[in-house]
Amino acid sequence: MEVVTIEKRTFSYVCERFTEFAKRIESLCSTHTQKVENWLDSQAVCLLLGFSKRTLQYYRSSGRLAYSQIGSKIYYKSAYIERIIADREILNQSPKQTTPYEKN
Q1: pLDDT tens readout for residues 29-83
Q2: CB 67 within 8 A of CB 74
Q3: With contact defined as beta carbons under 8 Å apart, do 40 and 81 qualify?
Q4: What is the pLDDT of residue 102?
């Protein structure tokens, strides 16, 4: 083990600076306490939506589903997936308009 000695004045300065740093970090953490968004990977999204990987790729490339990519892994905000599910439910619940059959 190596022992390093420093002057008391230097040690006090380092302690003060560290205390200031800790207060800044605490302040930043308290002011930026936003709701953390949940992110889902492609496999989870395919399972939730009942999509194949190719359909998910189509949604990405057509701009119907926003995503973020880190390296080779793709992530989706859970809010986007919830919106797609809600849109599908609305489409399934809307009354279908049928045209009556007419004889000619």
Answers
A1: 877 666 657 899 999 999 999 999 999 999 999 999 999 999 999 999 998 999 8
A2: yes
A3: yes
A4: 55
Q: pTM for this structure? A: 0.54
What is the full DSSP assignment across 79-98? HHHHHHHHHHHHHHHSPPP-
Residue 67 CB: number of other CB atoms within 10 A? 16
Q: Rounded to an integer, what distance in angstroms lies between the CA atom of residue 53 and that of residue 43?
A: 8
Residue with tokens 């003060």: 16
* DSSP-derived 3-state class of residue 41: strand
d(CA 39, CA 82): 12
